[in-house]
Amino acid sequence: MPKLLFILLSLSISISLSAQSIVIGSVEDLELREKQLLGKYDSSVSFTVRPLYQNRSTDWKKPKLSVLPLVFTQQYNSHHPYGWNDGAMMASKGYQAMLSAGVHAQYGSLEVQVKPEMVYANNASYAPNTAYGSNAGGAYQKLFPGQSYVKLSAGAVSVGLSSQNLWWGPGTRSALLMSNNAPGFVHGFISSRKPLHTPVGDFEWQLIGGKLTSDDNRAYENFNLTTPSSPLPKDWRYLSAYVISYHPKWVPGLFLGMTRALQRYKQDIKLSGTSFLNQYIPVLTKSFQKANAQYDDTMRTDQLASFFLRWVLAKAKAEFYVEWGYNDYNQNVRDYLMGTTHSAAYIVGFKKIVALSKEKYIDLGFEMTQMSQSPDYLVREAGNWYVHGQVLQGYTHQNQILGAGAGLGTNVQSVTATWVKEHARLGFLLERVERDPQYHAAKWTDLSIGCMPQFKKDRFVFSGILQMIHSSNYAWDKDVNRWNLHARLQVGYLCGK
Fold it and tell me: For the chain, which has fewer Cβ within 10 Å, the N-terminal or C-terminal residue?
């Protein structure tokens, strides 16, 4: 019991909130999206290209140095790994912690942030089988570059080098191509730092070229936390990717966008030609159909792409969103039209603010993520999302999926209801996770209920989640049912607010 109480009181401590970028998944990140639905935040921001920035000005006359938040995060799983969108933290049973600290400096158009992250995981053994899990156990620790970057900015545009986590698309629980499920990876970028206003509407974007690596001490999420039966190539992978969001001036609240990611092994970069664009920005030059990219298999190239829509209904204080993605090429335009669901996944969500008074409201949310294969697989096998034939590590960094982190081929339905009064919140979560149903006779399904409290005391903000999960047919073993406790609590110290 003392150990359980310690876990339930585990804290994430933040000192100072002076960072220019808003951490993805933070309380402030969540509150800004709600404020937009309430009409209290910039309506031109899509919330599909993140991180956002607190201070969008590039007119810094004097040098400025800030001490960044000191963040100590702890979480716990009682029976087996559970949870996603936790950055550098690993999928593990038992206790783990992450420590992050750093500094931020800016002068003129130059901005530098150094904020590494140190992760420690008890990584306790749990019950695996041939289809799921690893019983290796053993403590794990590693230092990551974390939320660090150096960049130059002019107006609405920034260019630089970063290891920050990115989030692309309109989802809140999941994103198909880029989320904070895995550690941030080192990447060069050209991006918007605020909406670019034009005569036809507003644009936001990120174009990146990044380095993806693996870790021999971690199990692979896209192999159901098992170790591959045969050794994988040791070479790191180059990721060329972009997201673009467009807000047409004629339709208030509507955001349309696209994401695309293409990866290949480092030793294959120069196989696509001699030009800089073909080698390092192939995501802009490669065809979307197999008929015009017939040599990609010899270059060990894999890709993902998605299209999304977010529609903010200002008068209703609500939003609707959808993201539809493809796991790989189709043969041609006819193939895309005739086989719309082939190799496809999607996210659909809805959020509604119900005002109770001037200061109180209820935030209602629903999100469904579908990544298992559609019935189309009976005619033509597409394989699971994030598993590819050319790049054997799949769409991962440090063995964790870069997109939706619920698991390989998983379907998720989430319902949330949160009472809010200023910084005080009390939320409830109902969630169903259907794990890879197409490839197993016994259906492994997690049903969970969670409580998500938050309150402010002076300069401290306490928040967290306590989730009880019932796993039926755990690890796809028929009639094997297990309970799991997932706990994560945080406290933030608001400096200078």
Answer: N
Q: Distance (Å, rounded) from C-alpha 473 to C-alpha 444? A: 5
Judged by DSSP in three states, 227 sits in coil
Q: Assign residue 3 a region: left if phi > 0, alpha if psi is -120 to 50, beta otherwise?
A: alpha
SS3 311: strand
Identity of the residue numbered 180? N
- Give the distance from CA 29 to its chain's centroid: 13
Please name the residue ranges forming H helices in 2-67.
2-8, 27-37
Convert the pLDDT of each residue in 55-96 to its tens digit: 655 555 678 888 887 888 889 999 999 999 999 999 999 999
Contact predicate 325/178, CB 8 Å: no
What backbone phi and psi angles, to 5 degrees, belong to 6?
A: -60, -45
Query: Total structural domains in the chain?
Result: 1
CA dist list (Å): 397 to 165, 218, 229: 12, 11, 19
User: For the whole model, what pTM was predicted?
Assistant: 0.91
Evaluate if residue 171 carries a pLDDT over 90.
yes
Neighbours of 478 (CB within 10 A): 12
Domain with 454, as residue range(s), is 2-493
Average pLDDT, the chain: 86
What CATH number does residue 316 fall under? 2.40.160.130
Q: Residue 96 contacts by C-beta under 8 Å, 6 or more apart in sequence? A: 74, 75, 76, 89, 90, 119, 120, 121, 122, 123
**CB 313, CB 320: distance < 8 Å:** yes
pLDDT at 11 exceeding the cut of 70: no
Quick one: pLDDT at residue 367? Answer: 98
β-pairing, 13-15 vs 482-493, is parallel
Contact 427, 418 (CB under 8 A): yes
Does residue 388 carry a pLDDT above 90?
A: no
Phi, psi (deg, nearest 5) at residue 56 = -90, 0
Angle at 334 between CA 333 and CA 336, to 5 degrees: 65
Work out the number of other CB atoms within 10 angstroms of the CB of residue 270. 12
Looking at residue 427, its amino acid is G
